[in-house]
Amino acid sequence: MRNIPVDTSAMSFTVAGEPEPKIVDRATGEVKKDAEGRDLYTLPLLPMPNDDRRNPVITVTFPSAAFPQIQLGSKVRLVGLVCFFWQMNGRAGMGFRCEEVRPAVEKAA
After folding, report:
1. Could you please report the per-residue DSSP string of 39-99?
2. pTM value?
3. pLDDT tens-place string over residues 19-32
4. What ranges do the domains of the chain cover?
5. Which of 20, 39, 74, 100 has the most CB within a 10 Å radius?
6. Does the pLDDT of residue 34 top 80, yes or no?
7. Origin, by domain of life (predicted)?
8. How far apart (Å, rounded) are the C-alpha atoms in residues 6 and 3?
């Protein structure tokens, strides 16, 4: 799988749904982990600008040590966003992964 970096400097992202754990085995509820042992989560996002009127929402996978507390409708910034092509069981598509999801505006300390 070849990861292609995505330049997000001219983009904004609005949270379009709740974060969910990425499940490996639905029977056991086992959550998929990254190479560092962190749980992986998915988050639906509305990127802007966006010309895809039929499917404007993308789902991004990201690692987190704890269940992410991300509010629906909030603006976020994606650190290290990449896209990749996947194929599995006769299906194929584009996937998105990032290293971290942060608030678009950091809170003052």
Report:
1. EEEEEEEEEES---SS---EEEEEEESS-----TT-EEEEES-EEEEEEETTEEEEEEE-S
2. 0.87
3. 999 999 999 999 99
4. 4-101
5. 39
6. yes
7. Bacteria
8. 9
